[in-house]
Amino acid sequence: MFVTVKGLVLRQVRYKEADRILTLLTDTEGKLTVKARGALRKGSKMAAASQDLCYAEFTLFGNRGKWTADEASTLEQFLGLREDIAQLALGAYFAEMLDTVCPEEQPAGGALQLALNALYALSRGIYTPEHVKAVFELRLLCLEGFQPEVEACGVCGRTEMDGAMFSPASGMTHCAGCAPGSAGASVALDGPALAALRHIVAAPAKKEFSFAIPEDSLERLGRAAELFARYQLDRNFYSLDYWKSVK
Ligand SMILES: [Zn+2]
Questions:
Q1: Considering 104, 110, 152, 232, which has the largest number of Cβ atoms within 10 A of its Cβ?
Q2: Cα 233 to ligand 1 centre (Å)
Q3: Are residues 179 and 206 in the same domain?
Q4: What value, to the nearest 5°, has the Cα angle with vertex 62 and ends 58 and 64?
Q5: pTM of this prediction exceeds 0.90
Q6: Of the residues 76, 99, 126, the one at which a domain ends
């Protein structure tokens, strides 16, 4: 069976003389493991298309659950990322998160579109890396079923929340009066950080990045997003530590 997919390379490892094994996040087939034949031959189209974080069209042959690609053409290489080690490291974190949350062969069109928008914004410098990272983390978790409650206080239901506290462990937001006494790992949000959090959760696709936020509010938002991802996915990411060491 032949099928043509558009896919983002989340991971690639060398296989035998001239091939690569790719982890692809595709538009129609979800996440797939694909053997890319001839991917290490110099000058082959597959060589360019099968690099980390490359978005390309692949012609796949499927046989008994195994996928092989002989042909590919690059759609977007995100060149801006490849010129900056910190940007590339952040892209690698996005890829590691996608590989973690997207199950094999389950539709993941929303996650793919989010990833492409995030990588595009990063590579073109449309938003700061911290802005792109916070949106990507929160929105990916929403898409995968971990939506935080940010509209109303989790205890009293009030929506006007001065001094709101966000709990990354529960995904709940609390007004100042209801915030648990031992806030623990809760993150204190200010007005712009809470507004941004609400926007990221509720905005239509492609609009999730579109907001302005002062730097200190972005720092709060970033802490909330990163901790939320870490608690909900219950793991650390090596690529995130690496990004922090080079940014
Ligand atoms: Zn309350």
A1: 232
A2: 27
A3: yes
A4: 155
A5: yes
A6: 76
Question: Of 29, 56, 76, which marks where a domain is finished?
Answer: 76
Q: Which amino acid is at 163?
A: G
- Measured CA to CA, the distance from residue 47 to residue 170 in angstroms comes to 44
Contact criterion met (CB below 8 Å) for 67 and 60: yes
Task: Give 171-213 pLDDT, tens digit per residue.
Answer: 999 998 888 765 567 999 999 999 999 999 999 999 999 999 9
Span from the CA of 49 to the centroid of ligand 1 (angstroms):
51
pLDDT in tens, 88-131: 999 999 999 999 999 998 988 899 999 999 999 999 999 999 99
How far is it, in rounded angstroms, from Cα 174 to Cα 119? 32
Question: β-strand 30-36 against 55-63: which pairing, if any?
Answer: unpaired
Ligand 1 midpoint to CA 176 (Å):
7
Is residue 6 within 8 A of residue 24, CB to CB? The reply is: no
Ligand 1 centre to CA of 137 (Å) is 26
Token pair of 226 as six digits: 């990163």
**Domain membership of residue 59 as a residue range:** 2-76
Gyration radius (Cα) of the chain, Å: 20
Provide the number of structural domains found in the chain: 2
C-alpha 151 to ligand 1 mean position (Å): 11
Amino acid at site 37: R
Task: Spell out which residues have Cβ within 5 A of ligand 1, the ion.
Answer: 153, 155-156, 175, 178
CA of 194 to the centre of ligand 1 (A): 15
